[in-house]
Structures are given as C-alpha cells and as structure tokens.
Amino acid sequence: xxxxxxxxxxxxxxxxxxxxxxxxxxxxxxxxxxxxxxxxxxxxxxxxxxxxxxxxxxxxxxxxxxxxxxxxxxxxxxxxxxxxxxxxxxxxxxxxxxxxxxxxxxxxxxxxxxxxxxxxxxxxxxxxxxxxxxxxxxxxxxxxxxxxxxxxxxxxxxxxxxxxxxxxxxxxxxxxxxxxxxxxxxxxxxxxxxxxxxxxxxxxxxxxxxxxxxxxxxxxxxxxxxxxxxxxxxxxxxxxxxxxxxxxxxxxxxxxxxxxxxxxxxxxxxxxxxxxxxxxxxxxxxxxxxxxxxxxxxxxxxxxxxxxxxxxxxxxxxxxxxxxxxxxxxxxxxxxxxxxxxxxxxxxxxxxxxxxxxxxxxxxxxxxxxxxxxxxxxxxxxxxxxxxxxxxxxxxxxxxxxxxxxxxxxxxxxxxxxxxxxxxxxxxxxxxxxxxxxxxxxxxxxxxxxxxxxxxxxxxxxxxxxxxxxxxxxxxxxxxx
Length: 481
Fold this sequence. Notes:
single chain; 481 residues; mainly beta; Pectate Lyase C-like; Jelly Rolls; six-stranded parallel beta barrel; 4% helix
C-alpha cells in the first residue's frame, strides 16, 4: 500500500489498492472510500481524485464527498456503487449540507439504489445540497427509492451525459438551483413508486432559474403502472423561470392511458421549450464497453484496454452520424459493432487500433456507411523476444516492420478486416538465419511459403490480402533487400 505522502504527490487515490475497498461487492466499501475522500481533501495538489477500478462497491452508509474532491469510476458499465439491503438512505451526499461545499465532481460510474431490497421510500442515489460548482459527468443513477439525482440549492451545477432510470420518484430533481446546465440528460422510466402523476423525468421546483437543458431525452414516467409524469416539468406555482429546454427526444412510446401529460410543462413566464432541437455537439468519453446514445455524436475512447462501442439500430435515424476515436496510446483495439445484423460498409464491425485513429459513420436508414477515412499510423514496429510472438495489429496500420531477435519468431494477427491489404517487413539481426512461423491460413502465390533470406542485417518484404475469416493470400514483394 502506498504511503499517504506518495498519494498526496500523485493527487490520485485508489480506493482499492490504497484503502482496501472491495470491488467484489461482498464486503462493505463505504468506510474505505470515505477514508480515501478524506485523504484526497487534505492532499497536495488540491482537487484530489478518488479512483474506483472496475467492480461493484457495496455501501452500508452514504459516501460523503468533501470540497475539491472528484470521485471517478472506470465507466458506467464498469464501476457500480450498490446500496446494501435495508439501508433506506442516500448512496452519495456532500459532507456539509448546511454550510455547503465547493468543487465536487462525480464521473464515470453507476449508482444503484437497490430499491427492491429496501424497506421504506427514503433515499436517493445522489443527494447534493448547497454545493457550488458541482459537476456530474457520465453518471447513471438507477433504482432509487426516491430520486435518481436530488440537487438542492446548488449554484451553477453541471450535469453532462447523465442517465436516470427506474427511480421511485423523479429521475432528476433540481430544487432552488440557479445557473444549472444539463447537457444531454437522459431521464426515462421513472416514477416507479410515487403516486401516478406526481413525478417526472426531470423536475424543476422552487426558485430554479436561469438554466439550460440541451439535447434532453426524457420520457415514460410511469406512476402506478401508467405513464403520467412529464418528461420535463417546472412545478406549478413555483418560482421557476428563465429556463430553456431543448428537447432532442420528446416521445412517449406508450399507448395513451390514464392521464398521460406529455413531454414538458413549463410554468415560468420567461421559460421556453424547443422540441426536436440539437444545438450542442455532445462528446462522450468512455473507458469500457458502451452503446452509443441517441444524443451522442463523438465518442472518445480512453480505455487502454480492448473496448467495443456498439451503434444503435440504423433504422429510423437516417442521416444520424457517429464518430468514434481512440485517444489513448495503448496497443489495444476499439471495435465498432452494430445491432440486428446491420453492417458498416458490408461488415458487421469496424476496428481502429492506433492513437488518434477515428471512424465516422452515417445511417442510411438500413445500415451504416463510413463517411470518413480511418487515419492509420504509417508503420507499426515490433521487436519480439527470441522464441516469442509478434502480434501484428492490423487495426493500427497496414505496414508492419519486425526486427528479428536472437531467436525465431511466431507471427500472429489481430484487428484485421475483410479485403484489407498489408505489408510485413522482416529484418534479420546481426547473426541472421532466423526463421518465422506464419499465421494460418495463407494461400501463397506459387503454392508454398517463400524461403526468407538468411543474410545478417538483410530484410524481406511480403504482402497479404485478407480474403475471409482467418484466410489470406500471400505474395513476395522483395527478398534479401
């Protein structure tokens, strides 16, 4: 375990390796996470980060965030904070709800209120009160007894790509907040416990003013089994005003039952709603498997691990464009996958593998068409160990240089796509006579694999075409160069 002085120098506090949190979900982790938060609040530099690696973290009491601290997971699909059974309380709060806190950030995780295993209707996934500069980024709140996100008396809070679903009352509740900014919020299938008509996807109340809600996706607030809440509502007879709501998706998929109230209801004199408007250009950072949301446009992968980004169905969204870009420097691949057997340029997946590579695709109403060339690194180099394996990353580029070690080498492939052509250059070391074992299955021009040069410091270049799944045509481009 690192010393506190070492942790303070880095500014990042790993709740598992440094404080003993349990990512299996078996033992309680709130005590360890709160210890990490205290350390982060007292360290140097300020603005310490408490990091939760992938896993499920059981909490038996609320996590209490202090000023100038960020709680960061490994992605919505990777890190989950789970309220333990029969706790009947909030999952995450700020530690001073009377005097207030400043500069709190929560990012890249899921909070599960575990409503099915609680005994009373108390507790929200996130309950922040009197916080200045609150930022919630890529956070999912689900299955709370009360609200997914309950935010009271906060100045200038920012919610960026937050999802609230399957909560007992409101998905997102803003009470007496000013200067709020909600970027691509997704609040659906809430009002699961509250009396029909009393809860909404996003609810603004009391003196909640001067806010912008852009690219809103909010629908299907049930209430007693009937969709009766609004997508977005300013509470009647409140002092809400000057709120601009831009609805990207304002649909309700249910048959009209009970008193279906619609997409939005604004009570403020100067508040207004614009339906079907998408003015921002949302950017989503992901570090684990992710399915692109309707409001996404650019998905930036920061995983340092193999990640799949899945596109939604192309049907019904003709013209919709997604860009997926790999910005980490790791050697792993990013796979762009489709649904319902749809295709990207006649293939079910596309692959990118080098830092700064990107691919843009557009829906034609049936499938996806690439509209931007993938920029690949010009040369990929490999220096395997003797008797080792050189795994050529075809998703990262089409030219691959192998420098032979003091021994023979096996060549393997990853990230190839049908129809791809690529070059392999093999340079002998200062001794020469090194051999390679080729990947399978290659159909060589002339019927057999070529004999590589045995001369020290000389090279051979071969070219290949991917003809199918793990099948290739092989050609000699030059020997003994």
